[in-house]
Fold:
Amino acid sequence: MSAYVIVDTKISNPEAYETYKAKARPIAEKYGGKYLARGGEMDVVESDLWSPTRIVIVEFPDMQSARDFVNSEEYAPVKAIRRANAECSFVIVEGV
Structure:
């Protein structure tokens, strides 16, 4: 069953964040990740619980693949770039 990494990101340093994007994608793809949305146009229809900023959705083959990506040694230094240059909410959710 597919799993989805969903990230809402508020970028504070756009130039440095470009480095994160370039480095994160090939690592996600190594774990079977396929980008479905990456900061495109958004229409927030309701926002009772949360007001999203910039949404990224990456589909993985399963929960374990998504977890393996997030917790991988090769992603750790890339994650540090994201954390230094953006605030985010990051979740993994199982599909149906």
